[in-house]
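Late entry, NDP complex.
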Amino acid sequence: MPGFCPELVGSMSEGAAGNPTGVMIEAAFAHHGLAWRYVNMEVATAALGDAVRGSRATGFRGFNCSMPHKVAVIDHLDGLAPSASVIGAVNCVVRDGERLVGHNTDGEGFLRALGERVRVRGTRIVLLGAGGAARAIAVELGFAGAAEVTIVNRDEGRGTELAELIAANTRAVWRPWVGDVVVPPGTDVLVNATSVGLYAPDDRPAVDVASLDNAGLVADVVFNPVDTRLLREAAALGCATLDGLGMLVHQGAAAVERWAGVSPDRSVMREALAAALTP
Ligand code: NDP
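Prediction complete; structure with ligand written out below:
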């Protein structure tokens, strides 16, 4: 029977005020006439367990996890979906009966956005970074049949661990980040999966700009600003570019699919997001 109680989902993170996900997901709920609400919650690390228990008590259908809870939340869940288990991090929790199951839609979101531009199977990828976003992307690239993933990262431990993690599915190597990264000829996609450029329109990762057009496509996971310096400089050389909004929209859409069983209209979500991020 229809009532006055919406279905609840949301997000748990620190620095929640800077997280625009709720805007696009609520736009999708409204567009599809769903009586669901998305609550963006500031949750301190020490309170994460209580917050997850609270979500069980109040009947939340699920929630996103953002920094710094993507790994720590696993201790409070009842199970993990396969990608989250391999990646070792959760950005989307789905209630399945009484169980809270951790998923990871970050890599899936990137792959869906990338798949709108290139056929991923057989591609040669240069991936900058080996943190949470890079890890999720690399794992999904392996599953999608990328031929080669070169991981360029400052920290050797994180870089080699990630290369080893995906080596069963793709040719994977770690390269140290020395000076400006030269993009090798024959690269299909260069992906910036570092946090360089986030909230800093004048920053970009240390790359040899003249070599950017060795890549068929230059992609950035940074979505604020949308038009990062890396993408602007790549576009100025005539390179095709892919911004971080596509990944954000698709990972949010994947969450809505899991929670509500509805495939939301991505263009509605992207429009809401772009409007929210316009200064
Ligand atoms: P992490 O902190 O887990 O990883 C950060 C990565 O950036 C590490 O590999 C780190 O290298 C690297 N890095 C940081 N500073 C530099 C630098 N000056 N030069 C070279 N490398 C550097 O962060 P996340 O992976 O969670 O997030 C990365 C970015 O992805 C953020 O901007 C985030 O907003 C974005 N993101 C976007 C999403 C989207 O939907 N568009 C979804 C999720 C994240 P090292 O290991 O050597 O320290």
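The first strand starts at residue 7 and ends at 13. Will revisit in the morning.
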